[in-house]
Design goal:
Layout (H helix, E strand, L loop, with lengths): L14 H75 L6 H15 L2 E7 L3 E2 L4 E11 L1 H12 L5 E8 L3 E3 L2 E14 L8
Antiparallel strand pairs: 1-3, 2-3, 3-6, 4-6, 5-6
Helix pairs in contact: 2-3
Length: 195
């Protein structure tokens, strides 16, 4: 038979040995926890912090890009509105029917009689094309003043040039003036035609 080894009982160990064993077991558990759990948690925390910093930087850049996008979108909307306004002032086509309708409507609103309307040939300039129309109207002085004022209030650019008044005529108690004028509007030159 094999010889029996003496069995040590924890209860029979001296206090110093018990403290050493308890400290040793506690040290093993602490080392196991530190290397098995704490180190991996520390790495996870460091990785999470790095990821958080990257995401925070991405978020900051996204906010900056969003602000820039909103600014550019607002600028584009302003430019679109300005371009639409400029297109009403200086259209790409002559739009003679609309121009003549505006003149006729304003003459009627002012109480004038339209006698002669004669479109003239266009004259090209460097940045615009002149679209002249000879116009003869008659009415009272205040009606004429109202007509010219209403023309100045239109969105489209219109010049009233070569205004000539004839000798006033008396019709009953009213004194009427006959006016011949060159009403000139403008359009953008057509790049395709070279005008």
């Amino acid at each position: 038979m094999a010889p029996k080894l003496p069995q040590a009982n924890f209860a029979t160990l001296p206090v110093g040995a018990k403290i050493f064993v308890a400290f040793f077991i506690l040290a093993l558990i602490s080392a196991g926890y530190y290397f098995g759990v704490h180190m991996t948690m520390e790495e996870d925390i460091q990785n999470a912090r790095r990821r958080h910093e990257v995401l925070q930087n991405d978020l900051t850049q996204a906010h900056e890009r969003q602000q820039e996008y909103l600014k550019l979108r607002e600028e584009l909307a302003g430019r679109d509105a300005l371009d639409k306004q400029n297109m009403r002032i200086l259209p790409e086509t002559a739009e003679i029917p609309a121009f003549l309708d505006d003149l006729n409507r304003l003459a009627e609103l002012s109480g004038l009689r339209v006698g002669n309307v004669q479109p003239r040939p266009e004259a090209g300039e460097q940045f615009f094309v002149r679209v002249p129309v000879s116009l003869a109207v008659s009415g009272k002085y205040h009606q004429l003043a109202k007509f010219f004022y209403n023309i100045s209030r239109l969105e489209r650019a219109i010049n009233m040039e070569n205004i000539s008044l004839t000798t006033p005529t008396k019709e009953g108690e009213d004194i009427n003036l006959s006016v011949s004028v060159l009403a000139t509007t403008f359009r953008r030159p057509n790049a395709a035609k070279g005008k």
